[in-house]
Hints:
Layout: H1 7-71, H2 77-100, H3 104-162, H4 166-191, H5 195-218, H6 222-337, H7 353-364
Amino acid sequence: xxxxxxxxxxxxxxxxxxxxxxxxxxxxxxxxxxxxxxxxxxxxxxxxxxxxxxxxxxxxxxxxxxxxxxxxxxxxxxxxxxxxxxxxxxxxxxxxxxxxxxxxxxxxxxxxxxxxxxxxxxxxxxxxxxxxxxxxxxxxxxxxxxxxxxxxxxxxxxxxxxxxxxxxxxxxxxxxxxxxxxxxxxxxxxxxxxxxxxxxxxxxxxxxxxxxxxxxxxxxxxxxxxxxxxxxxxxxxxxxxxxxxxxxxxxxxxxxxxxxxxxxxxxxxxxxxxxxxxxxxxxxxxxxxxxxxxxxxxxxxxxxxxxxxxxxxxxxxxxxxxxxxxxxxxxxxxxxxxxxxxxxxxxxxxxxxxxxxxxxxxxxx
Length: 365
C-alpha cells in the first residue's frame, strides 16, 4: 500500500495535535479558574455587605438605647452625642449597602430600611423639640411656681401656729397637702407618662384650689390673705404649664413607644430577612465554588491522563511509521555493504521520504 503522507507532515502533525490538545486543556482550565474567581469575588462581595448589614442592625439597637437614655434623663448630652454619631454611621452604611446590593429583593428591603431610619430620625428631631419645650416649662414655670406656692402656704402655717391660729393652720395645711400631692403626681407622670397620673395631679390641683378658697374665706390677718392671693394667682399658670407639659410628654411617649417602636420593629424584621437571604446566597456560592473546584480537579485529572495517553499513542505511531522503516533501510544498506546483493529493498512503493530513500538504495543495489 502506497504511503503519501510525508515524514515531516507526520512529525509536525503529531506535535500540532498534541499542542492543540494541550491548548484545549489550558482553555478549559482557564475557564474553570475564571468561574471560581468570579464566584469567590461574589462571595466576598456578599459577605462584606452581610457584615455591613450586621453593623447596621447593631447600630439601630444602639440608636434606640441612646434615644431612650436621652429622653428618660435630664439632658443627657453624652447620650445625645452618641445618637448623632450613630445616625451618621447608619446614613453612611445604609447608602453603601444599597449601592453595593444587586439582588432586587435585598435592595428593595434596604431602601425601605433607609426610609424607616429617616422617618425614625425625623421623629427624634420632633422628640428633641418637645423635650426642650417640656424642660423649659418644667424649669421655668412648674418648679418655680410650685416652690413659690409651697413657701407661701408653709409661711401661713408657721405664722398661724406661732399665733395659735390653729383653724387657719389646719386649712393651710390641707391646701399644702393637696398641693404637695399634686406636685408628687406631676413628678410621677414625668417618670411614667401615664394619663392616670396626669388626671390625679389635675384633681389634686383642683382640690388645692378649693382648699385655698376655703382658707381665704376664714383668713383674718393680712399675711394669710396675701398668701392666699399669691397662691390663687399662681395656681392657673401652674395648671396651664402642667397641661403643656402633659401634652408634650404624651406626644413624646407616643413617638417613642408607638411610632418609633413600630418603625424599629419593621426595620429589625427587614434586617433579619436581608441577613437570611445573604446567608442563603453565601451558602449557595460556597457549594457552587466547592462543586466547581471538584469538577475542575476531575477535568484536569482526566485531561492529564488523556494527554499522556495521546502522547504515548503518537510516539508509538511515529516509531512504527518512521523509526521502524528507517531501521529496516539501515539493515538493507548494511547487507549491501557486505556484498549481499540479493537482499530485497523494502518500502520502495511509499510516497514519502522513506520511499525516496528506498528507491535510492535500489539504484545503489
